[in-house]
Amino acid sequence: MADKSAIGSTDEPFEMVVDRSKIREFARATKSQNPAYVDDPEPVSEPTFLMSSAFWAPAGSSLFAKVGLDLRRILHGGQEFVFHGPPPAAGAKLTVTPRIEDIYEKEGKRGGTMTFVVTVQEFRDEKGNLVAESRSTVIETGRAPQKEG
Amino acid sequence: MAATWDGLAEGTKAESRSFGPLTRTDFVRYQGASGDFNPIHHDEEFAKSAGFPTVFSVGMLQAGILATFATDWLGAENVRRFAVQFREQVWPGDTLVCSGEVVKRYEEDGERKVDLELSCDREGGGTAIRGSATFVVA
């Protein structure tokens, strides 16, 4: 059972630098040959690029530990990226702040309670302006997942 | 090239596009790029021990492919929102078909914008991802 008192919890902010090599690598991995990612000397990042913040998060930081989910029963339900302008471009130095936005439950169609945990990462530029948000919905199923993202 | 405002009336559909068939190498390449190394997407023994017939794709890989489809259509710099909901799993050998439609065209804060509905479907199967997005249009 998830600990709803974790709503609003934040992790320590961490730095993330948007790197041109990583943008090229992401383009290849997502089957894009768009010159805006591959040829531009200061390319913008791809819509899902901010997933790679995983490489910048400090080891051991996990909001999920605060929620108390069973990691064998979780699956990725959905993901949303919001950009307050063009996506961050190569060279951008971002500060990432993770936060638990919501925790709620729904009855599953085939029995068992599903717990939804919504986490958000806020990305701010060097002036402190909010430039992007990445919102992840993770579902803890009542039984072993039959679908997974 | 990116579509124009006049060419993006509500109901306009992008030409659908196929990607794949996806391979285990595609899964691994995405895992390397994103930093998500869940072994269920590349370790056959691990996937079977968890009750799956074989490894399956990372949801965010097909999300990224759907994003590629959308940004090739309306421009990499123009995306302001991109969201996905995961439905069916994607397996090695699956070919994905991406499609999209303009569902709303409007002006907001001095910018012209379109909202899209997007879908990433498994050829011969069901829907892997339902997506939505907002792009500004020059």
Which keywords apply here?
A: mainly beta; Thiol Ester Dehydrase, Chain A; 5 strands; 13% helix; B: alpha+beta; five-stranded antiparallel beta sheet; 3 helices
Question: How is this structure best described in words?
Answer:
- The complex is a heterodimer of chains A (about 150) and B (about 140).
- Chain A has three helices and five strands.
- Chain A is mostly beta strands and about 150 residues long.
- Chain A has a single domain, classed as Hotdog Thioesterase (Thiol Ester Dehydrase, Chain A, Roll).
- Chain A is globular, with a radius of gyration of 17 Å.
- In chain A, about 30% of the residues are buried.
- Chain B contains three helices and five strands; from the N terminus they run βαααββββ.
- Chain B has helices at about 25-35, 45-50, 60-75, and strands spanning about 15-20, 80-85, 95-110, 110-120, 125-135.
- The mean pLDDT of chain B is about 95.
- The chains are: A mainly beta (about 150), B alpha+beta (about 140).
